[in-house]
Amino acid sequence: MCASWRIPACERRGEVVVTLLVRDEVSIAQDGVEVVVARSQLTDLADKLYFLDQAFRAEARDVVEALCD
């Protein structure tokens, strides 16, 4: 492991730990579940997470249209 970041727990979910792995991968872990994402997947993942975050801030219709483009 090279570096890791902790996102504090909230009222419904446990802490999220994001870890940069030596082999060009990123681990995202929460409550005993780990997802390992390849470096080549990070841009697409970040884009989708951004749009999902926006769904909580804007009209859902705008977000759905953006995701479908």
Describe this structure in words.
It comes from Saccharopolyspora mangrovi. The structure is a single chain. The protein is α+β, with helices and mostly antiparallel strands. The chain contains two helices and four strands, in the order ββββαα. The protein has helices at 42-55, 60-68, and strands at residues 3-7, 16-21, 25-30, 33-38. It has a four-stranded antiparallel β-sheet with strand order 1-2-3-4, with no helix packed on it. β3 (25-30) and β4 form a beta hairpin. The longest helix has 14 residues, at 42-55. The N and C termini lie far apart (36 Å). The model has no long low-confidence stretch (mean pLDDT 87).
Please describe the structure with a list of short key phrases separated by commas or semicolons.
DUF5753 domain-containing protein, 69 residues, 33% strand, alpha+beta
Measured by DSSP, the beta-strand proportion falls in: 25-35%
**Low-confidence segments:** none
Class inferred from helices and paired strands: alpha+beta
Radius of gyration: 14 Å
| SSE topology string | EEEEHH
**How many strands, what sense, and barrel or not for the largest sheet?**
4 strands, antiparallel
The overall pLDDT, averaged over residues, is: 87
Q: Output the number of helix runs.
A: 2
Shape: flat
Quaternary structure of the protein: single chain
- How are the strands of the biggest sheet laid out side by side? 1-2-3-4
